[in-house]
Amino acid sequence: MTYSRALLSREYEIGAVGRILRSAAAGIGCFLVASGEAGIGKTALLNEAVDRARGEGFRILQARGSYSEGDRSFGLARRLFGSAPAQSDVDIQIASVLAALSSSTPEFQNNGGQGSSFIETSFADLDALNLLVSYLALEREPIVIAIDNLHWADRPTLRWLITLAERIESVPVAIFATVCGGIPGTDPALLDDLLFCCSHELRITRLGFAAATTVMEEQLGASPDRSFVTACMYATEGNPLLLNELARALAEHGVRPDARAADSLSGVVIDSLARSTHVRLRRISPVALSLFRAIAVLDGQATFDRIALITGTDLGTAAENCSAMTQMGLVTAAQLHVKVSQPLVRNAIMADHASTARQALHAQAAKLLYLDGEPENAIAEQLLLSSPLRETWVPTLLRSAAQTALVSGDPRAAILYLRRALAEPVDNDTRPVLLVEVANASTHTDIASAARSLAQAATLAPPAVLRDHLTPAAFNLLVLSGREDQAAELINSDLTHTSAQLNDSLTIRLALFAQGPSGGIRTMANSLDRLRALAPYNALEFGLAAMAEAVSDGSLTNVVSLAQRAAAYPISIPEDLMAHLAAIQVLCWAGNLMEAQDLCEAVVVTADRWQHRPLHALGLSVRSAIHRRLGSVSAAVDDARHGLDLLLACGIRRQAALIYVVLANLVLALTDSGFHNDALTALERSELNGNMPEGCGPAVLLLARGRLRCASDQTDAGIQDLIACGRQLTEQGITNPAIAPWRSEAAHSFVRAGQPHEAQRYADEEVTLARRWGEPGQIGAALRAQAIAYSGDASQLSIISDSIAHLRTAGVKLELARSLIDYGLMLVQSDERVRARQPLREAVRLAREIECPNLVEQSKSAYAKTGGRLRNNPINGISSLTKSERNVAYIAATGKTNREIAKLLFVQQRTIEIHLTNAYRKLGIDGRSQLRKVIRDEPKI
């Protein structure tokens, strides 16, 4: 049997209605009461009972209890009998009984200020009504008496219903009534007596997740995201009325039920809820609304004594009203604390209150929590919503709460707390320090905002004061974000109170990270020499020293030692993350790729947990470079894309050194993957595709662009970029090919351009420098370039064999596959086709293993030249997916949303959507609903 959609998940209750009706039809009367909070669906169930009864031939007597007619004698009874359809002979009897009630029932009277009541109802009136019901039920048809809001029934009607309930066991009468918990009603004692007589009571509960999903889908016309439904459930606590009101409000504004909309539900305000809640609260007591607002303001920190203090009521009144509100479902009480049950109702009530009054309530709440010694964050949240208190403890507490928020990974809260502290009257010495603290916190999310705060502080205090309070990590990010002018001003200011070690440390950072005149290997080297004499280093200084040694052609062993010492420090502050990132980059240059990868995973996870967006982005970019060297080109692209998007969202200038480096990683990863058009698009969108300025960052991007252009048959333009890259790096004293192997790339390009002598010159120089550095992977890559440059030379095969040996030692699969392809082609040119098959088969296997489609095609094409045939190895089903696509598909099959998967894998949500779309196409399915079936026999990750 079908029933109203307002009765979702009410199968048990509907079954109870059916049983009552069958019992009444068989001559056994029953009385069923549906109780629960407002909006829970009691009226919908009552209407369902009436509709079913009408369809089964019952006579319907239906009415609603009225708050305004609670003083009218037999008012509800009159409306019940007046609701029956007109039938001439019965109408005469009903009219005569009602007339008798009018003439015999005493009038309402006031009891001398002690409350109002009715004089005792006569038994004759009650008997007349009961006889009328029995006559109608036995002589005509079975009766259903349906009463909504029974608690507002007048006193004589309640007394009549009590006597009727005691007599209907042998009469075909079914009484259905609804009662809202917490409402005292016209006469609580009589209502209790009546409920005691009922045959069955149904306590209507809130809707579950599945029913809420159905409500949202029907109202919004689209399948809702799981996180969206979760947010709706939190806002409404599963109350059907609130769910439908929320759905209607969202539909009116054209909101799509996706994960993005879920984040905005906490602030939704529905005006109509305020009006209806006001009415319900005022019917509890005159002070209930004020008490409810106090509970809403304290938001989980409300106790009876705090509520009483804020509202000026006594403790007993506060407790009594809270009990009534709990029964109504408006508040929840647990362990002496009271809180608003449904955030949607809380929003409506608070939005309806004047802003100045709200701020005053929050100010009172903050003082109470402070005096009671509650946690700082709870007090700080109240202060955010209050007007200035002008008390000395407020800025101190907010600064302390901000520091705690930063440590716990909530920089946005820290920024809000500090800005709120600035709204208090603070002295001239404290205000610039507060602004610097805002800048420190803002570097976690918005570098541009941090720079503005620092500039504002500079108008109030000298640079030396600012330098003393600016964290090293914030200083580094200012430089990295292209604001080295501000950083240089801090360094060049009065150094009277600054240690030589700190000054040299800052100078090294500026030289390493900045572009133009502030940067440079020579400036850095001079400061490094002074810093060595002032040992011991801290974690970041070890990392920077390792980086400085690497870019200035230091000893590989010494560089690795310094990097490992930096990485040995535990991560407790953002500066430690930067130390680890410096160490990871150096270890990557040194060929310690697995060690670097493990350390980088920890950095990415920690930065994400701390919500430190720039360092998270930098970690992803470094991880991209590691993935690329190890051969995981798909993962490299994902990380580089996500890292670049994160950085741009942080307000970093597009011309900053860091943007150039991260963009270069993306272009290199896309080029390795064979996605040349995507790489060109990334360059064009970056607005950095024109003439490059001087600096390490632009030089690295020139390398990436030159390599892309050569791979895209723009050899001359590519060579110009590569030579420009080499010129910039050489002028800055950077010759280590691990930093930027531009000579190898130039050698490959000159070979394509038909200039072997130039190719040999650059390749020979690269091999010499790579051997001096001593990292096998770099030596192997340089030897490959040298072998190609000496095409036709007798030493060519020996050189490429040496390249392969070094690359096997290094464990870099992508470069190894390339050298194997070149080795096979050289053997083919030497007419040793059979001998060429073995390295080319290995190249095909490696290319498939690292999921590099263009390299697969290159290796297969090269193998075809040997005259041999590869085994037909079609890739179907799950095997046809890339590693990234498989990972995403397996997780999606567990029921996680795209947003949850993106967070789990530290990539963009758009990346997940692309992987799933590709997976659906390759698997031949329409969507997520079929995914579980397709992969159920596959091992789960």
The CATH class assignment of the domain at 5-110 and 118-203 is: Alpha Beta
Measured as a percent range, the helix fraction is 55-70%
Task: Report the β-strand fraction as a percent range.
Answer: under 5%
Q: Specify the overall morphology.
A: elongated
| Low-pLDDT segments | 105-119, 494-498, 515-519
| Termini separation | 44 Å
The averaged pLDDT comes out at 84
Q: What's the Cα radius of gyration?
A: 39 Å
CATH topology of the domain at 5-110 and 118-203: Rossmann fold
DSSP strand count: 9
Description:
The protein has 941 residues and is mostly helical. Among the domains are: 5-110 and 118-203, P-loop containing nucleotide triphosphate hydrolases (Rossmann fold); 209-268; 434-535, no CATH class; 877-935, Orthogonal Bundle (Arc Repressor Mutant, subunit A). The chain contains 48 helices and 9 strands. The strands form 3 sheets. The protein has a 5-stranded parallel sheet with strand order 2-5-6-1-7, sandwiched between helices. Helix 37 (715-731) packs antiparallel against helix 38 (742-752). The chain is elongated and about 125 Å long. Mean pLDDT is 84; it is low at 105-119, 494-498 and 515-519.
